[in-house]
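Re: that chain you flagged

S.,

Sorry for the slow reply, it's been a week of failed gels. I finally had a moment to sit down with the sequence you sent. For the record, here it is as I used it:
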Amino acid sequence: MNTFKILFKIVVFTLICMQSNFVSSQETLPIYSDYLSDNVYLVHPSAAGIGNCGKIRLTARNQWAGVQDAPELQTLSFHTRLGYNTGVGAIIFNDKNGYHSQKGIQATYAYHIEMGRIDDLNLLSFGLSFMYVQNSVDETSFVIPDPVITQIVQSRSYVNADFSMAYHNNGFSSYFTAKNLLLNARNLYGDNEPLNLRRYLITAGYYFGEGGSVQFEPSIMAQFVERTGEKFADFNLKVYKNLSNAQVWAGLSYRKGFDGNNIEELTYFTPILGVNYKKYMASYTYTKQTGDFLFDDGGYHQVTFGMNVFCKPPRASGCPNINASF
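Prediction finished late last night. Pasting the structure tokens below so you have them in one place:
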């Protein structure tokens, strides 16, 4: 076997591992822009049962259309309020990325504390999630036959936990979440994989124009990966328009990495379109990666469908995550 062929195999295999680590394999649940489709609970456990309605949400995401074995993700989530202070929720997810895949289930308990009068929104919330994840790798169909690479068939499971806090005051919303608190790893490739998968997220936003025909909601979400020191931030803006029996909305998210490397820093643009009709919602998201270092020039497509259940009268004021519009 010539040197070029050996180097080619090493590069391809390394890129697949890098790609898998970056997108999904080291995360219990990958963090994209799903939360902007009225699905904050996917990111922050303290959002479980926080609003006046229980929420069922189904998402399907496909990346790099036209590429064989392109990354894809499906999630089914539900959360609701039980009684006065308690919220519960659950997420089932299926995440596939080339030769790697993971399936998992997450269960959440949240507790909400009223900090002011009952007719005002002044709410402090705490949430704790536990998840079980089954990771698999099957490279028997690797494009370049090799007795070392193509014999890798592994399946491992592990558990982890997230802790979250939230504070809402009228149109203001904020969240803090520490993800993957337990020192557990996939161990698909032995004992050398990192145990520290911790990631910290902070979200803050404000909802303007309540009561008018058009509302605006700017927000920001910052992420920090403890082991690698990676830093990201999402800069978001959503606009809502009320119609006679529905609400349409549009959003734009810009995700930027802040690692000091101008070539490889992460940069995403994500436009979002959605509609709420009675107790139903639907949205479409398209994400485009930019920059000089790309795995592929294709886009990322996602659809979300949802239904609100067990609805109660809305609060006096609050962001859409608190008060369902219809």
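What I noticed first: The first strand starts at residue 54 and ends at 63.

Talk soon,
D.
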